[in-house]
């Protein structure tokens, strides 16, 4: 990576420093622009530039019903500016974005029957999107069948006792 790609503005340096200080849990993009005392558009642009330079990772999250990004640093410190105009490699340690650990047991037979697994719109589906699980007729019908099956099972158990 050349030094030209890592020329950071003072605001970008401040933003990166705040993100690094936030640690492995990162910093919400909305909190970043508030701390920098700038508007959301400028905050978003700064975060995008830092992500493009591979200094931070942006993860889409929903907080209190609003979509925002969690920003986590991929470096330990703000890269120093190069004094010479020659292209030099900037040395810094990259961090892997934090992973989410789930301890859930799932029966794969049930998962395979969910209509979402074969839906052509699954990659564009999400809350608030054009394709939304809350309004999906196929998913709704599948859930109704699953509920009726559970009700039948519980009714059979109740009659046995």
UniProtKB/TrEMBL annotation:
Instruction: Report domain B-block binding subunit of TFIIIC positions.
Output: 10-71
**Alphabetized InterPro entries for the sequence:** TFIIIC_Bblock-bd, WH-like_DNA-bd_sf, WH_DNA-bd_sf
Highest taxon of source: Archaea
- Name of the protein in question: B-block binding subunit of TFIIIC domain-containing protein
Species source reads: Ignicoccus hospitalis (strain KIN4/I / DSM 18386 / JCM 14125)
Which lineage is the organism of this entry classified under, starting from the top rank? Archaea, Thermoproteota, Thermoprotei, Desulfurococcales, Desulfurococcaceae
